[in-house]
């Protein structure tokens, strides 16, 4: 499977809220780094924690992959992904106000020679995320 296909399959499983399927795409020693949240570590721990929290807090959590770029020599792919959802429960220290968000993300994904994901790093505008979920009352 190509790097681009791996990324697209990962985000299709993410849209389905298939955490086990998402985890199956990673190598045994894989790590993630969700930079704005300062959450990093083994995917089996850190990945499960963040994805379960997001899917619980945003039951309609979804994503749209808008672009994927790859570098065959480096086994790296970069994905532009818009993630959306409507908050239904308190999550990540944010009280539920029933607000929605739509936020562009960038994921850098490094693959192993067997097409498994060895490392994933994610970036997004954390201030925009919190602003969407905690609007000020005028």
UniProtKB/TrEMBL annotation:
A Pfam family matched in the record: SnoaL_2
Domain named SnoaL-like: residues: 9-114
InterPro entries: NTF2-like_dom_sf, SnoaL-like
SUPFAM superfamilies tied to this protein: NTF2-like
Domain of life, per lineage: Bacteria
Name of the molecule in the record: Nuclear transport factor 2 family protein
